[in-house]
């Protein structure tokens, strides 16, 4: 028994590899057809044909052009139906299995059958023709997701809900027109059928019980659809309210107009959690208010990373607009950080252009604010410096140099990690020049700072000069600031 175990496992492994190979071959079937169906033009064309076919169905049912146009409507409808049959056939060819195809397109298949003349066996099949309306809704939902950048957030959900309600209303109207409208019936005109379907959908009640089998089926279907619409509407509204309540609970209740000396972060990317964490660990900034300005702000993702958001104010607007920056309190802010925010179909040049526009606008509104900008391309650095931006960080520049040092000597990584994060033992920071060191030499300052502050002097920042790292020996002036490595408190 033990000797057959490996053989049994080997056979299972071979069968598994065989199935994987079959799956890969299946996915490679008909690459040309897959390319055609995946083209957005194909999707839009099918949606247009579906909408046009429904328009023909409405015109035929309401008899806007009289009965003499019915043969023309039938001919156009059959032509469109043949196109839909070809579309479904192509989708069947590239589907992984018949079961998957039927599960995904059963409503499309059902709505097509009565449209061919051979299946028109009675008026009851007209009711099945109306199923094409829900085929529209499913097709739109399936295809609109491909263009999710057009309709975002709650607008997309509202669009789907409105489309479902419209489809249900047209379904009920055409159903009552076919079965319950007539001179000897309660509904005399197609307009009466419309109002009856509308009130049946909204109130889930029907004053006069339908007299025909088709009308009863339509009423039963409308009752189910009415409950579904109510459930969808209630769920959407509840989700919006809960999202608003949750968002309010996660962020600060302070309005930007009341802030002063705060930090404004324009843009939202993976640097935001790092910035928030570093500010929280810094003893000088752990209680500062932060204003996040971006259409892409996601407070829940910050909370999931254990980031405090109780002192965060969110403004979901475009940070390149002057009015938005004023609303963020940029005139009273102490620091402004502009991040490279990725967007749909934005190149790195477009991202840098938005960053430059926001940075220069901030400097125009408040020249005293300390502005830091993140860029992709170093050639724009001079433009920002000329506009008054204090610091420009190039994407990947520092991390690339650090990676090179780590690759050459693995001992450098703990050094940089220890210095750059306040959460570790040591930190890199500026201190004001102690009065005892004014006029002293750099050598005297190194010894004094180590003896009295337990810190190591590594640089000097003069008001009229850039930072001098490991400077030459000279006398210190009272306006000099010292960069030191010191232990965290």
Key descriptive features of the protein:
489 residues, alpha/beta, Rossmann fold, Alpha-Beta Plaits, 3 domains, 6-stranded parallel sheet, 4-stranded antiparallel sheet, 18 helices, 10 strands, elongated, disordered N terminus
Topology:
Elements: H1 4-27, H2 31-37, H3 40-62, H4 70-94, H5 98-112, H6 124-129, H7 132-144, H8 153-180, H9 190-203, H10 213-250, E1 263-266, H11 271-281, E2 290-293, H12 299-304, E3 312-315, H13 322-327, E4 335-338, H14 348-365, E5 370-375, H15 381-386, E6 391-394, H16 397-408, H17 412-420, E7 426-432, H18 442-453, E8 456-461, E9 468-469, E10 481-487
Parallel strand pairs: 1-2, 1-4, 2-3, 4-5, 5-6
Antiparallel strand pairs: 7-10, 8-9, 8-10
Describe this protein's structure.
The chain folds into three domains: 27-240, no CATH class; 253-395, NAD(P)-binding Rossmann-like Domain (Rossmann fold, 3-Layer(aba) Sandwich), CATH 3.40.50.720; 417-487, Alpha-Beta Plaits. Helix 7 (132-144) runs antiparallel to helix 8 (153-180), helix 8 packs antiparallel against helix 10 (213-250) and helix 9 crosses helix 10. A hairpin with a 6-residue loop joins strand 8 (456-461) and strand 9. The strands form two sheets. The chain has a six-stranded parallel β-sheet. A four-stranded antiparallel β-sheet has the order 7-10-8-9. With 489 residues, the chain is of the alpha/beta class. It is built from 18 helices and ten strands.
């Amino acid at each position: 028994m033990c000797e057959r175990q490996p053989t049994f496992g080997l056979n299972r492994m071979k069968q598994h590899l065989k199935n994987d190979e079959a799956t890969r071959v299946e996915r490679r079937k008909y690459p040309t057809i897959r390319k055609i169906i995946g083209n957005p033009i194909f999707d839009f064309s099918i949606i247009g044909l579906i909408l046009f076919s429904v328009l023909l169905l409405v015109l035929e049912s309401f008899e806007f052009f009289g009965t003499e146009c019915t043969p023309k409507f039938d001919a156009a409808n059959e032509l469109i139906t043949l196109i839909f049959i070809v579309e479904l056939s192509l989708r069947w060819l590239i589907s992984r299995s018949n079961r998957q195809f039927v599960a995904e397109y059963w409503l499309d298949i059902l709505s097509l059958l009565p449209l061919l003349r051979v299946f028109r066996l009675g008026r009851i099949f007209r009711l099945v023709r109306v199923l094409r309306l829900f085929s529209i809704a499913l097709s739109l939902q399936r295809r609109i997701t491909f263009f999710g950048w057009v309709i975002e957030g709650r607008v997309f959900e509202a669009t789907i809900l409105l489309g479902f309600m419209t489809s249900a209303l047209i379904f009920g109207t055409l159903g009552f027109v076919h079965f319950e409208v007539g001179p000897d019936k309660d509904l005399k005109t197609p307009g009466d059928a419309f109002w009856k379907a509308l009130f049946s959908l909204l109130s889930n009640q029907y004053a006069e019980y339908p007299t025909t089998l088709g009308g009863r089926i339509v009423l039963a279907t409308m009752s189910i659809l009415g409950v579904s619409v109510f459930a969808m509407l209630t769920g959407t509204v509840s989700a919006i309210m809960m999202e608003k309540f949750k968002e309010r609970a996660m962020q600060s209740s302070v309005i930007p107009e009341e802030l002063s000396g705060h930090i404004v972060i324009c843009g939202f990317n993976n640097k935001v959690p790092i910035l928030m964490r570093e500010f929280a660990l810094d003893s000088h900034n752990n209680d500062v208010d932060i204003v996040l300005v971006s259409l892409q702000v996601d407070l829940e993702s910050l909370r999931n990373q254990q980031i405090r958001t109780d002192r965060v104010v969110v403004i979901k607007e475009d940070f390149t607009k002057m009015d938005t920056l004023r609303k963020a309190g940029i005139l009273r802010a102490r620091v402004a950080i502009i991040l490279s925010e990725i967007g749909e179909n934005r190149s790195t040049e477009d991202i840098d252009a938005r960053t430059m526009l926001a940075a220069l606008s901030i400097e125009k509104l408040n020249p005293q604010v300390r502005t830091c900008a993140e860029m992709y391309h170093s050639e724009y650095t001079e433009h920002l410096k000329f506009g008054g931006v204090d610091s420009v960080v190039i994407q990947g520049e520092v991390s690339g140099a650090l990676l090179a040092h780590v690759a050459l000597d693995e001992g450098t990584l703990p050094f940089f990690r220890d210095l750059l994060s306040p959460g570790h033992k040591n930190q890199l920071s500026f201190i004001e020049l102690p009065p005892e060191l004014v006029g002293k030499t750099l050598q005297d300052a190194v010894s004094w700072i180590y003896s009295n502050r337990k810190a190591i002097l590594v640089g000097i920042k003069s008001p009229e000069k850039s930072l001098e790292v490991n400077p030459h020996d000279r006398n210190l002036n009272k306006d000099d600031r010292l960069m030191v490595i010191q232990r965290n408190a």
